[in-house]
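Quick question, first post here. What does this chain look like in 3D?
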Amino acid sequence: MKWKSMMAIALVVFFTAGCWGVQDKKPVSEKPTVTEENKPEQTGGEPEKPVDDPEKPNTPSDTPAVQPGKTTDQQPNIYPENTGQTIKIHDESIVKDSLNIHIIYPQIDGMKDNVAQAKINDYLKKTADAADESQMTSEDPSAPSSFDSTYKITFQNGHLISFVYDQYFYLSGAAHGMPSMVPILVDLDNGRIVELSELYNGSPQTKQIISKLILKQDVLHMLEVMGEFKQISSDDLKQVYLTKDGLMMYFPPYEYTPFAAGTLLYHLSFFDIQSVLNTTFFKSHGIPVSQPIHSTTIYVSEGFHFSVPKEWMDRLTFERADYAENNKWTSAINVYFNSADKTLLLSFHMYEKQVWASLKPGAEVKLAEKGDMVYSYSVAQIPQNDLQANDFIKNVVPEIMKTFQID
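> Answer (accepted):
Ran it through. Tokens below.
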């Protein structure tokens, strides 16, 4: 009888402890859902996909993401508790048809501090409505001035939201319009807009370390075209936005490159730049910065990116192929072994859809399509005795293609 009583007590304790553990796991924030009435294409609030996983969009998460190879059990109590806020984001718009102004901007709901939320939302609205209307004339009636602004969420957890405004301003009579990006980082814990300079620890080596990483990613030597780039500036340190595992630094047209190069993007993983980061800030906002990243992401001005294992970066050369009328593709990037004989390994191509349809089936592998363009790749024919090249094509190329993504 005594034995049965002890077993009953043990079962009650075990069941109670289990229920207690379940009750503790409350969500930090509510994930915004995309419905037919609220698609990203219609609203502008489009979450950006992670650079290393083209299959899954970078939707806001309830808790800080568990990094590959680690579990929350291995690092107990490192990151802050949830704030008890249920955050929702909805879209608002500003339309001034007479001036060709079309704006979609985010508004935040669910913060505990209503006054702070109102101030943040006012800032989000005013920053979106940035057109200088006094300059918006119709000098050329066939091409009147216009201003468009949309946004995307590049990172969200229970403590921070990273917005990026994509804006385009055209003045009537100009040769072309001007794109711009505006990063906004919202601190949900403290109800404020984060100054981007707070992301760094003030190390005198900050510019040097980041510049070195950027030059390593600049595989097509875009920063050499105008000869303007020597090292990033203090202003460049503020031209960043958060991703799930790093900072994205961008250079707008004309800063270091011609307009035709577009906006250049360089992904700086937290691990690679942790020595210059304000790690206290990231830790207090639920972001780990010490998880190794084993690949380098290459952003191409044609509008796509892919990742290459770091151990291969120094062994490869990337070149943009010269266009010729007899080429069926509209753009090509060739990848070679960095050797004396410069062995061609593979090529990325862009085709117009109608041209792609005319190609011999199986000639190339289709990666994606967007609008009227098809993105593909082909591998070179390599002699069987070239073991290293064949190893790259067999084992590395498939991994690279898994990371391919249109921007």
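The CA atoms of residues 68 and 291 lie 8 Å apart.
The chain is about 20% helix and 30% strand.
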